C-alpha cells in the first residue's frame, strides 16, 4: 500500500482562481439568488391572483351570470321538481342478495396448520406495544 508522506502533501499544489475571478463568481451567484427571490415573489403573487380569479369565476357561474340565459329555459326550482317527480315514478332497482358467509369452523376445517419451528439459538425476541 503506497504511503503519503508530509513532503508529498507540502508539494501538492491546489489551483485557486485569482481574487478578481472569485469576486466575479460571488457576484454572479448573488445575482442568481436575487433572481430566484424575485421569481419566487412573482410566483406567490400569481398564485394569489389565480385563487382570486378562480373564486370569482365560480361565484359568477353559481349566480348564473357566466353565460346568457335562454328565456325558453324553465326556472331551476321547476326543473328540480320535475326531476324529483321523474325519479319517484321510476321503480327502484332490486339489489342482489349477498350469499351468507360460511361459519368460521367450516372455512378453517380444510386448512392445516404448519408445524412449529424452533427459534435460532442467537435470535432476539422483541416486544412491541400495539
Structural class designation:
mainly alpha
What is the N-to-C order of secondary-structure elements (H for helix, E for strand)?
Answer: HHHH
Find the count of extended strands (DSSP E, 2+ residues). Answer: 0
Uncertain runs with pLDDT below 50, 5 residues or more?
none
> How does the overall form come out from the CA principal axes?
flat
Round the Cα radius of gyration to an integer and report it.
39 Å
Largest β-sheet summary? none
Q: Count of helical segments? A: 4
What do the pLDDT scores average to? 83
Q: What distance separates the N and C termini?
A: 54 Å
Q: In percent, how helical is the residue content? A: 40-55%
What fraction strand?
A: under 5%
Plain-language structure description:
This protein is an all-alpha fold and 130 residues long. It is built from 4 helices and no strands. It starts with 5 loop residues before the first helix and ends in a 22-residue tail after the last helix. The protein is flat, with a radius of gyration of 39 Å. The chain has a domain at 16-67.
List the helices and strands and how they pair.
Layout: H1 6-11, H2 19-62, H3 76-89, H4 104-108
Amino acid at each position: 500500500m503506497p504511503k503519503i508522506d508530509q513532503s508529498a502533501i507540502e508539494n501538492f499544489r491546489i489551483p485557486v482562481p485569482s481574487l478578481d475571478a472569485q469576486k466575479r463568481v460571488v457576484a454572479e451567484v448573488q445575482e442568481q439568488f436575487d433572481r430566484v427571490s424575485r421569481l419566487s415573489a412573482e410566483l406567490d403573487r400569481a398564485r394569489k391572483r389565480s385563487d382570486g380569479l378562480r373564486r370569482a369565476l365560480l361565484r359568477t357561474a353559481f349566480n348564473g351570470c357566466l353565460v346568457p340565459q335562454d328565456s325558453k329555459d324553465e326556472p331551476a326550482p321547476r326543473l328540480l321538481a320535475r326531476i324529483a317527480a321523474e325519479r319517484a315514478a321510476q321503480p327502484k332497482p332490486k339489489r342482489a342478495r349477498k350469499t351468507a358467509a360460511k361459519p368460521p369452523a367450516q372455512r378453517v376445517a380444510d386448512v392445516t396448520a404448519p408445524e412449529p419451528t424452533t427459534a435460532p439459538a442467537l435470535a432476539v425476541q422483541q416486544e412491541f406495544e400495539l
